[in-house]
Give the backbone structure.
Amino acid sequence: MELNELTAHELIERIKREEITSQDIVDSIRNRIKKLDSKIKAYVRLSEPSLSVLSPISYQLSVPLMGIPISIKDNICTKGYNTECCSKILRGFKPPYNATVIERLIKAGARVLEIKNNMDEFAFGSSTENSCFGPTRNPWDLERVVGGSSGGSAAAVAADEAIAALGSDTGGSIRQPASFCGVVGLKPTYGRVSRYGLIAFASSLDQIGPITKDVRDCALILKEIAGYDPLDSTSANISVPDYVQSLVNDIKGIRIGVPDEYFVEGIDNRVKDIVLEAIDKLKQLGAEVHKINLPHTNYAVPVYYIIATAEASSNLARFDGVQYGLRTENREQRIENRLIGMYKDTRNEGFGQEAKRRIILGTFALSYGYYDAYYLRAQKVRTLIKQDFDQAFNAVDCIVTPTSPTAAFKIGERIKDPLKMYLSDIFTISANLAGIPAISIPCGFTEEGLPVGLQIMAKHFNEEMLFRVAYTYEQNTDWHLRKPNV
Ligand code: GLN
């Protein structure tokens, strides 16, 4: 096997034994990207002048990540390197500081890729088709989407163009692309990982998390990026367990909840069967399986699309041609209103269609006379959704569902129909609304050879439970070892 095909923990062992160096891994990743990425398009701005793919960050052999290269979604700030959220409006933006997760990765000895992973513009989407650079293609079938919005990160890991990656998840953007690409993706508990330097989409929902080839790598990386950060007032001052310790191959007596509401009409039958088989497997491995109810599940999509768009519309107000990225070239603005004209033209030229749709939806939901009817009411229903989970976790240790109702769909299939696209998120959104952690792991393939993801959710700050269940499943199956033939 080539080095780029290995996991971080396998590579770390080899580095420790002094069989390889960090630079060997970097070279093998670089070769893979050069050879393959014109097909997959997991990375953006690859053609830029230097083509020196990685920042030469020094590392010592005593640090946990030992010089492992990690690739980064285009909405996480890297000091001095383009961070554009795959939006025209941020063209050329080079942040003056690193996000906290970047600082922590560097401190842990990781090498951070200079070039970034493709994503839906501002993380608005479920297919990576909303990127101003065009879609990423699924390594399992180039005609299909990779999921979104962290689609470039998931595809890079699946196609061995990255060892591991960081994505962000507001309503499923780590887990759904991980499931479409057959890799592992974790959304931590809200507050577990600092959001400082993550360009905000919806501040009460966003979390950064790892996308990896297996569960061990996921635990390894979360351990390094998690923890309190004085620069993010919503980060939690709760100690970070050693997640690698929770990787035990044993789920005897673990109570697993299976919610009726996640196996209803609209779910693809093949996906349903594969997930039910996975649940059976967990039972064989010693877990107790209980039927549960999350009665407000039906409201998750409408509630999310009010809260997320409202927060997005206010977060995106800062992009006006003055401080960041693009400013319109058009100098013809009506004389009496030059400044407003400049704002308008910049925003009109800079934002793509989905960003505009969300700004309009969100502004409407927050506007005078409608605030109570939409935003306030959505927040109240959000509390009910959270209470569903609180109640469920009185009786079970974790909840298992499909990550997405279907496997990867065709490029172009849903992009013209926003409602259909929004419904792709139906199983992932609730975890963000409730703030709980959730992981997606590969659990099978459809007859077309497309990966299917199993989602596991647990109580706030109980990522250890996710790792334990996910690891046990992974150790007793081999779905995660399959590679796409690209
Ligand atoms: N697909 C969802 C949306 O379009 C979630 C995106 C995300 O998690 N960033 O909003």
User: Anything to note?
Assistant: The chain has a mean pLDDT of 94.
